[in-house]
């Protein structure tokens, strides 16, 4: 799982960096503004990719965790 996580994070990070560079090349911003955009984009990657991926991998690696989560969701749905 570690290789999969590393691969996905690397891919997302490459996209993030490319898109930030593309945006910054179009704008005329101060160094502080550029840094704010970099920080925002890194924060988004952390929140949207790394955190949820780490939780998912933890569930998959702990079979009882995965089963308990599935059971909990079924109870919530009334299944």
Structure in words:
This protein is mainly alpha-helical and 79 residues long. Helices cover 90% and strands 0% of the residues. It has three helices and no strands. Helix 1 (2-26) runs antiparallel to helix 2. The radius of gyration is 18 Å and the shape is elongated. The chain starts with a helix and ends with a helix. 0% of the residues are buried. The mean pLDDT is 83.
Main β-sheet, in a few words?
none
Strand content: under 5%
DSSP E strands, number: 0
Percent of residues in helices: over 70%
Mean pLDDT across the residues is 83
Oligomer: single chain
Distance between the termini: 30 Å
Helices and strands: which structural class?
A: mainly alpha
How do the strands and helices of this protein lay out in sequence?
Blueprint: H1 2-26, H2 31-61, H3 63-77
Helix pairs in contact: 1-2, 2-3
Keywords:
3 helices, mainly alpha, single chain, 90% helix, 79 residues
Summarize the structure.
Helix content is 90%, strand content 0%. With 79 residues, it is mainly α.
């Amino acid at each position: 799982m570690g290789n999969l996580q590393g691969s996905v994070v690397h891919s997302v990070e490459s996209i993030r960096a490319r898109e930030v560079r593309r945006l910054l090349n179009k704008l005329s911003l101060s160094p502080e503004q550029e840094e704010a955009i970099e920080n925002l984009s890194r924060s988004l990657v952390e929140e949207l990719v790394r955190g949820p991926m780490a939780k998912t991998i933890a569930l998959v690696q702990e079979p009882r965790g995965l089963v308990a989560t599935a059971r909990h969701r079924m109870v919530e749905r009334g299944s």
